[in-house]
């Protein structure tokens, strides 16, 4: 009788925990979604104020306010992405080779403006992987953003490489920046953790990438890149063409 009672108590506890976790995810998603509109309205009002004054001191305060509003909007967007990644995802088959080329081409404009050169190395064959629908773009966007920000300017370089495998394929993004220590690598997937305080990131990029990869049965790992720099390796299960 004691074991039966314990079993019933554990089942009730598990059910309550599942409900609470679901409610928490829904709250984060709903709150993030609702905050996007007022933040956009605030930014537009501030931008309109810029055209009404020529006072340099006031303009400086408005610029600072707009920057903080943009940072908060980015945080809200990342929280929404994280909440969606934690929900039950829908998986699909993705062309890893083409997606890597597309994201590298997209980020080349940002890299050029920052004085960073992007190198792309993909095989001639087409590699397909299983990933959360729309997740591979988010993963590569987060990783490319981090790599370009970490690369020195001028003289910065970023390498995006697609490597075939048997049961899985991988895409890696490396930079020639300062890299991370072993302790920093251990904390890099903690939410809101940032290696540097002088960046505009939210500290959610790598946790989101990890969550999306693991939801499809894949992984995200961090390695040293040659003598210095960081390499982020995203591994996803191989799949047949859809």
Average pLDDT taken over every residue: 86
The helix fraction, in percent, is 40-55%
- Quaternary organisation of the protein chains: single chain
Question: How would a crystallographer describe the biggest sheet?
Answer: 5 strands, mixed
Number of strands: 7
> Span between N and C termini?
53 Å
Strand content: 15-25%
Radius of gyration: 21 Å
Number of helices: 6
Strand order of the largest sheet: 2-4-5-7-6
Q: In terms of per-residue confidence, which ranges show pLDDT below 50 for 5 or more consecutive residues? A: none
User: What would you call the shape?
Assistant: globular
Pairing-aware structural class of the strands and helices? Answer: alpha+beta
**Strand-and-helix sequence, N→C?**
HHEHEEHEEHHEE
Describe this protein's structure:
By secondary structure, this protein is α+β, with helices and mostly antiparallel strands. Helices cover 55% and strands 19% of the residues. It has 6 helices and 7 strands. Strands 2-4-5-7-6 form a 5-stranded mixed β-sheet. A two-stranded antiparallel ribbon has the order 1-3. Strand 4 and strand 5 form a beta hairpin. Helix 1 runs antiparallel to helix 2 and helix 2 packs parallel to helix 6 (205-215). The N and C termini lie far apart (53 Å). 30% of the residues are buried. The model has no long low-confidence stretch (mean pLDDT 86).
């Amino acid at each position: 009788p004691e074991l039966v009672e314990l079993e019933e108590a554990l089942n009730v506890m598990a059910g309550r925990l599942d409900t609470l976790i679901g409610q928490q995810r829904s709250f984060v998603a709903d709150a993030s979604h609702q905050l996007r509109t007022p933040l956009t309205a605030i930014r537009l009002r501030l931008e309109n104020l810029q055209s009404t004054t020529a006072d340099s001191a006031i303009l400086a305060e408005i610029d600072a306010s707009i920057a903080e509003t943009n940072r908060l909007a980015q945080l809200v967007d990342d929280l929404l992405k994280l909440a969606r990644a934690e929900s039950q995802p829908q998986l699909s088959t993705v062309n890893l080779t083409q997606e890597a080329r597309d994201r590298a081409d997209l980020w080349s404009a940002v890299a050029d403006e920052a004085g960073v050169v992007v190198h792309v190395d993909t095989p001639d064959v087409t590699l397909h992987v299983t990933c959360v629908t729309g997740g591979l773009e988010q993963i590569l966007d987060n990783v490319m953003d981090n790599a370009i920000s970490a690369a020195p300017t001028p003289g910065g370089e970023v390498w995006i490489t697609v490597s075939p495998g048997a049961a899985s394929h991988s895409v890696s993004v490396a930079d020639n920046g300062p890299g991370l220590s072993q302790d920093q690598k251990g904390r890099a997937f903690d939410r809101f953790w940032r290696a540097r305080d002088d960046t505009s990131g939210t500290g959610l990029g790598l946790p989101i990438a990890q969550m999306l990869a693991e939801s499809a049965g894949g992984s995200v790992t961090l390695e040293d890149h040659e003598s210095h720099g960081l390499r982020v390796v995203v591994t996803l299960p191989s799949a047949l063409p859809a």
